[in-house]
Amino acid sequence: MKNKLIAYLGFAKKSGKLSSGEQIALEKIKESKAKIVFLASDASQNTAKRIRDKAGYRGIRVCEELNRQELGKAIGQEERVVVCINDRGFAAAICKVLEGEQDG
Question: Dihedrals φ, ψ of 98, to 5°?
Fold first, then answer.
């Protein structure tokens, strides 16, 4: 599952449908442009709470399957704590991967 998520993140980055960084992600969440948010599994408690609260308020799914190194590697950077997908198509494909993993 992680490999599929990493691949989708890479494709989204290359096609300009991804934003990274906590402040940018918070802006995208507030504008309801973020369709799904990736929060590093090893994010600080304060960052995790802020992202979960803002996304939850707007009904945006938060995925915590990857750590900061995996998120960074997926988009060609060293480390990332918060990444958001701003495209419905990519978000739908990612949700299918996540739900498929939960089923089996």
Answer: -65, -40
Rounded Cα–Cα distance for residues 51 and 54 (Å): 5
Strands in the chain per DSSP E: 18-20, 36-39, 61-63, 82-85
DSSP state letter for 33: -
Bridge partners (DSSP) listed for residue 85: 18, 36
Q: Could you report the per-residue pLDDT of 12-48, keeping only the tens digit for each? A: 999 999 999 999 999 999 999 999 999 999 999 999 9
End-to-end CA distance of the chain: 11
pLDDT single digits (tens) 78-87: 999 999 999 9
Tokens 């998120």 locate to: 71
pTM of the model: 0.93
